[in-house]
Amino acid sequence: MFRRLRSTPIPGTRDEYTGVDFNLGFHVRSYTLDLAYRVGPNHLSGTAVLQLDNWKSLKAMTLDLAGSLKVSKVTAAGSGGFTPRVARFRQSDNKLRLTFAEEIPVDSEFQLQIRYAGSPRPLRTAWGEIGWEELENGALVASQPNGAPSWFPCDDTPDEKARYEISVSADNPYVVIANGELVGRQAAGSRTTWHYRADFPMASYLATVQVGEYQQLDLSGEGQVPVRAWAPPELKDLVRDEFADQSAMLELYSRLFGPYPFPAYTVVVTEDELEIPLEAQGLSIFGSNHAEGDHAWERLIAHELSHQWFGNSLGLAQWNDIWLNEGFACYAEWLWFEHSADRPAADSAREFYDELAEKPEDLLLGDPGPEDMFDDRVYKRGALTVHALRCLLGDAAFFAVLRRYVAAGRHAVVEPRDLKREVLAEANAQSVPQEVVEKLWDDWLFQRELPEFPEPRR
Ligand SMILES: [Zn+2]
């Protein structure tokens, strides 16, 4: 079983979607972030310790870090005889640029310790402001696709997964929530340090910190996976009601897609309203407007949960493949209603197919480009592509293929060909000619025109 946790050789030196230069030559194995945050003045300070190995010899290297955070010190340490030394560092264009005293030989393992501080703010991007954001009373982080450098130095591309330990101190009574499991909580004077460990490979855009005056609710159901929410005390009843089906969703998806990939699932509901909910690894973030007790956002509660499989456990190699995240997450909404409300996914498919037919057919699902990366057509046409595969293979084989694809890509990085390989194998077993699969694939992903509405093969 091959698992890609480091750069697949994507051609070029720049991410064509984010416009950010790649940081080439190394892989970050883990990030240990030891941070202090002050809500009032919005001040963040601390140290990031990165464990790296390099696949090229390095005289210099870069990391992504926003200019609003100033680095005061960088030190390096080696393991196995070689001791790298940082000769100098500077910051420009949201990059931290390091030069070493001597070249680090290829395949070394070394550590960087980076001390930094500043007032974090979101990065301005083509998709709006993303990353660390101040709330009325706290802060949130939502970094998709490239906002992670707004709060820590990182190699900010989706295929570069690493393990994380995140410690953040804040004034009482603020609660700090981050990815992974809470492994320690230490009070000292008027402040408390919250220590989380995320022991599964995670892309930098999915790393998050939430700070607010939250209280915890247990939303666990009959299943094994703990489900919890953090919400402002005055919203607790509404949140309990709005997220009543969260555990049932998790049970359903675990059955359809394979075991839930993380030890627990958390939702954070902020006091502020948020335009859209956001996914992070092991948790999702909703605004108070998504929990008004009317169940208006049930589909998004299902959608965000499904990203734990599609997007988080199965990460993207590059943003071009965003439909692998959003198409499956949108289809997961339809599956939820198929099971909970007796509404066949085929009916949802028909409804959104008819909507798509009214819209311009000028988008390439397989490579939509940065401007259309989060266009609703990517979500809906992506889900219709998944539905077309279901129609082609039949229910039993389709879900078996889905579970194989999810299992093979678990905690790693996937590309469309990984899905296609499973589909082709199954089609072959059913004596469906390869050309039929190739045509479906090409029509939905690499033609702009909307293909015929998918119908079951027999
Ligand atoms: Zn989504």
Automatic annotation (TrEMBL):
Binds 1 zinc ion per subunit. It comes from Corynebacterium halotolerans YIM 70093 = DSM 44683. Its cofactor is Zn(2+). It comes from the Bacteria. Keywords: Cytoplasm, Hydrolase, Metal-binding, Metalloprotease, Protease, Zinc. Residues 30-206 form the Aminopeptidase N-like N-terminal domain. This is Aminopeptidase N. GO terms for biological process: proteolysis. Zn(2+) binds at residues 303, 307, 326. Signal peptide: none annotated. Gene3D superfamilies: Neutral Protease Domain 2 (1.10.390.10), tricorn interacting facor f3 domain (2.60.40.1730). One of its GO terms (molecular function) is alanyl aminopeptidase activity. Residues 247-444 form the Peptidase M1 membrane alanine aminopeptidase domain.
